[in-house]
Amino acid sequence: MSLNNSSNVFLDSTPSNTNRFQVNVINESHESSAAMNDNADPPHYEETSFGDEGQNRFRISFRPGNQECYDNFLQTGETAKTDASFHAYDSHTNTYYLQTFGHNTVDAVPKIEYYRNTGSVSGPKVNRPSLLDIHEQLAKNVSVAPGSADVVANGEGTPGDEQAENKGEDQAGAVKFGWVKGVLVRCMLNIWGVMLFIRLSWIVGEAGIGLGVIIIGLSVVVTTLTGISMSAICTNGVVRGGGAYYLISRSLGPEFGGSIGLIFAFANAVAVAMYVVGFAETVVDLLKETDSMMVDPTNDIRIIGSITVVILLGISVAGMEWEAKAQVILLIILLIAIANFFIGTVIPSNNEKRARGFFNYQASIFAENFGPSFTKGEGFFSVFAIFFPAATGILAGANISGDLEDPQDAIPKGTMLAIFITTVAYLGVAICVGACVVRDATGSVNDTIISGMNCNGSAACGLGYDFSRCRHEPCQYGLMNNFQVMSMVSGFGPLITAGIFSATLSSALASLVSAPKVFQALCKDNIYKALQFFAKGYGKNNEPLRGYFLTFVIAMAFILIAELNTIAPIISNFFLASYALINFSCFHASYAKSPGWRPAYGIYNMWVSLFGAVLCCAVMFVINWWAAVITYVIEFFLYIYVTYKKPDVNWGSSTQALSYVSALDNALELTTVEDHVKNFRPQCIVLTGGPMTRPALLDITHAFTKNSGLCICCEVFVGPRKLCVKEMNSGMAKKQAWLIKNKIKAFYAAVAADCFRDGVRSLLQASGLGRMKPNTLVIGYKKNWRKAPLTEIENYVGIIHDAFDFEIGVVIVRISQGFDISQVLQVQEELEKLEQERLALEATIKDNESEEGNGGIRGLFKKAGKLNITKPTPKKDSSINTIQSMHVGEFNQKLVEASTQFKKKQGKGTIDVWWLFDDGGLILLIPYILTLRKKWKDCKLRIYVGGKINRIEEEKIAMASLLSKFRIKFADIHVIGDINVKPNKESWKVFEEMIEPYRLHESCKDLTTAEKLKRETPWKITDAELEAVKEKSYRQVRLNELLQEHSRAANLIVLSLPVARKGSISDWLYMAWLEILTKNLPPVLLVRGNHKNVLTFYS
User: Fold this and answer.
1) Where are the beta strands (DSSP E) in 622-734?
2) Is the domain of 799 the same as that of 935?
3) Distance of alpha carbon 508 from alpha carbon 273, whole angstroms
4) Which end of the chain is more exposed for a tag (fewer CB within 10 A), N or C?
């Protein structure tokens, strides 16, 4: 087929107004086929085209003769399909199909919907066709209803429909802010606090212009480094609501995020009180000047503060839009106040201002104020501690990240620009005030220079004023003494007061909004379950009204205290702790080297971020050491609490990434070290099948591998490969989750194979990693071996041979009731379903009756839908009938009890170790490890060994000496001298009856018949074989007699596993040995190591 792209083929040849992917829709109806046949040209497949993104996704192209068919199709009332109306399989219908790059294929082109999370607020998630959908053979005659494009490949319904609908309802008319109003304005208002107007002049007076600039610079370094780290984190993925909590929790995990999120939200709530009290104090000072006090200063602060916080709450509850308008108005007032100060510095000073120390810009004043002049008790760090809170507030924009149009763009841009603008303002005010105002002034216009007075280098003296008496007595004016210097210098003093009001109220308003937003995000993640009540949002903006009122209550409580000098340092330290963790998050994410760490903001360095984190921690102690200690203690306890609760969240944190990197590095490092006998530990493959189906086998293995060795629960899926692989893949996560839920430190692994033995052989060879490879195979005893098919016995004995071939030790565990409880689990599951449905139906009927018929059948269906009651299917009916017809005896209570016997604490008793053959010491190491466990610690070891009857004492002493060198404690040693004695006739008869069905009896038949039987049933036990190993058979029967005599009351028996020589011992005879050896005994572990030392007495 040739491709014809000439212009006459296309009716619409304008490619410029298309979307990124242009996919052409082709009519395959019968009319189209007829038109195609009439056309001499062969059929053409259009190419996918690329264009602009602003227009429709599809451009319909027609071939000659096809437009009429298309017009007829539109007249039926249907419309052309868009990309959202195609099904992934829609390739065999008689209407339309989707072409990708000019080919009829299920494979999909890249689009953002495939990468969204389920329930994403930015749009619905669509599942791409699975690998099986494009790899397996395509089903024939697939019929798909129109409009089913978003049906996902795994058979689920259209994902995200409900979320999209909810999104449309919730976000209609929602207020979203850009980077200026949402971030820049808020950060500037929060950084420009009251400190700018009433403390910066004092700082310049104490530290001088030089050190003052350094103090401002050091503070800005902390905030800038934090801003850079925050920008990197923000641009590494979509940012939701929650601000600092969201950034830290998604980077470092819920433990760090949950601990810092709670104290950060609390700090913002208390900060509301701190800023409001600052505002109230300023108002009270004005009332004092006009002699208009209401009660007394303290109560006036409480009254004014309470009224103010109620007004601020009203603005916040009214909505983010009103709050944003209020912030803009406050910013304008603040900017006017700052401009008013700079204008005032160039307005010529009058006599009154000169007497108070203001002389406009003077080089002599600048030179005099450049160096420090610390008063008693003050120093660089104490002054720095007072100023630093003025530089905080950089998280004000990030805290409302959920209300920003594009948080990834707005937070870095707005925050960094706010830091720059406010820094320039702080430096400008500090330098200007330092160049205009002297440190000390009397305020008296009569303190002028007397003729002939020696100035001693004083700048004020050189300018005609004598303030020398300030050295001996306190003065009220100048940088060191007057907090209202900016008001004095400004062109219009009341504007500075308005600026103070603006600074305090804007910071209070920002904190009042930030605290509930952060708290709501924390509660939504359900890290603290008791706080779930505050997660609910209201209105189009999902406003946290409950959080607002909680913040209001906290703020009001601290306002009524009216004395925040004690709590203020802790608040500053809470904010600094957040900054430290943001910096550390950036460092940690970079250090973990996760491929998912790809921030669009490239101006960062992980070591600079680490320096920023350390600097924040240092500043915490500089500001107030005891407040820093309290902050760390609170954070530590919250961290421990969240870690203990283990919230069920997975955010792909850098902690997970670093755990992987550390594990990988440690595994690689381990491969460089040769194994040593002192470090040997049992590393087990346990053939449990599904771990929940044989819990007792897993429990006894876990008892001697927990915290010391590797444990892998393995399952082999036997059958058609396609079905087995599907079943295996679908259950992997569920079964590993079961292990985690039951606190079993083990891995789950599964393979699909043609037969059980091949699967186990694959597991034995390929399981593990580096030095962490299994060295012991643990299997359950095959209790039903006499009824099992021949292939099962061959596979069972075969895997023991395979383990020995791979030099892997073997442990066979036998308990009286067996291990498999899968039937019990199935019965329990069905009974639970029945009970749930019964309760749901009863509740539905009861609710329906209580309505007294109101709503009728419609109401019943509505309530049934709420209770997830679905129409019973025939399959469920049959299963219900099956359960109802089951005999009660099939629910084996004894089997259930036996499956939990190793979970219980073992009382005082013994573990009897029958160390008959030296296998390297594994048979001794396993019971020793068991005695170290809490559940087995009350059990004592009794050691049984074989020996000569005339050397019992000597061999007992030798064994005691060996055990003492191994440093293994034991209660007693028994030397059995009559192991090789023939068993009694009754025991031997039981053994003979056991093997009778599997014997060939060739000696009783003629040679021809005997040879024929051998060929037909090569698996049977021949008389020659039985005679050759008669002594070994005697030994197994005799050992059972001795076990019955000595170890009948033991809690556990650990016994040397007999080895069947390949080619000499038939499978059925070997199973008979195991049966007679462990018959009618307590739980038995048959153990055989790989005959390499696992114990040593060398240091």
Assistant:
1) 684-686, 711-718
2) no
3) 7
4) C
